[in-house]
Specification:
This protein is an alpha/beta fold and about 250 residues long. About 20% of the residues lie in helices and about 30% in strands. The strands form two sheets. It has an eight-stranded mixed β-sheet with strand order 1-2-3-4-5-6-7-8. A seven-stranded mixed β-sheet has the order 9-10-11-12-13-14-15. Helix 5 packs parallel to helix 6 (about 235-240). The termini are far apart.
Length: about 250
């Protein structure tokens, strides 16, 4: 039985030269298609923190909320990722609506303990990893560091994720501030980085973190806040500069 690392090395080798350039073009359902060495990856922004990723390894739904109708016309999930328990990231009714085909569910332990149906699911905590369908899924810490915000996302509870699809690496921040674990990320091709106040961080902190770990492409998401805490993705892009190519999703009506 090969180890997880051996499995991923084999997938990477099968993918060929991972340094090939990626190409983007508009796709249906408001998505962007990324041509990668392992095949197309299409990003469908749903709303706020909810994303659908069509990949060569299967369709991945991230933090599905908003009801089943929000996913009409999109591929049914093979994998569901949940970062944490807040209602804009975890909603049992939406989860039940999209689980008709019994997708695998990966969540942080706090959410996993709340699942109404825990069949075909698993919990991974900060620093842990698992393999699903040839995809290496790593749980990255996501937490607040600013006094007065610590109770929103306490350290050690919530997840971000890095997905390694045969060498194409996707980072999903979840709800977090500009933390060392984000800055230490390497080899990220595509990132989704949150920014809103008071719950996460402002655009300047998000841009500074992105300049530190340098993803090839980055989507600002989760940027509608409270009490004038909504962040401007255009300002974020200006501050990121040439460190990464900023992509914009239709997250809000």
């Amino acid at each position: 039985m090969p180890s997880r690392r051996q499995t991923m090395f084999a997938l990477s080798a099968a993918a060929g030269t991972l340094a090939l350039p990626f190409r983007l073009r508009a796709e249906g359902h408001g998505g962007d298609l990324f041509e990668t060495p392992i095949g197309p990856v299409t990003v469908h922004p749903i709303s706020h923190a909810s994303i659908v990723l069509e990949t060569p390894m299967g369709t991945i739904h991230v933090d599905p909320v908003g009801g089943g109708a929000a996913y009409d016309g999109l591929p049914e999930p093979d994998l569901v990722l949940i970062t944490h328990e807040h209602s804009d990231h975890y909603d049992e009714a939406t989860l039940a609506a999209i689980r008709q085909t019994d997708p695998h569910v990966i969540a942080n332990p706090a959410v996993h303990g709340r699942l109404a149906d825990a069949t075909n699911s698993e919990a991974i905590a900060n620093g842990q990893e698992t393999i699903w369908g040839g995809v290496l899924v790593q749980a990255i810490p996501a937490y607040n560091t600013t006094e007065g915000r610590l109770n929103f996302h306490p350290e050690g509870r919530d997840n971000g994720y890095v997905l390694d699809l045969g060498g194409f690496r996707i980072y999903i921040s979840g709800d977090t501030e500009d933390i060392p674990e984000m800055r230490a990320l390497e080899g990220i091709d595509l990132a989704f980085v949150c920014m809103n106040l008071p719950f996460t961080m402002d655009a300047a902190a998000a841009a500074d973190a992105v300049r530190a770990f340098g993803p090839r492409y980055v989507y600002p998401y989760h940027y509608r806040g409270r009490d004038n805490g909504t962040q401007d993705p255009a300002e974020f892009a200006e501050m990121v500069g040439e460190a990464s190519e900023v992509r914009f999703g239709d997250w809000y009506e």
